[in-house]
Amino acid sequence: MKVLLLGATGNLGSRLVPALLTHGLTVTCFVRSAGKLRGLLPPTVSDQITIREGDAKQSAAVKKAILESDCDAVVSAAGVAAAAPWGKTDLPEIFKAVLQGIQEACVERQKPIRVWFVAGMGVLNYPGTDKLISSYSPTKTKQGKLTANATTPPLWHNSRLRLIPLLGKPLTVARNANRYETTLEQNADFIAADLESFESKWSGCTVGVIDPSK
Question: What is the pTM of this model?
Answer without folding.
Answer: 0.72
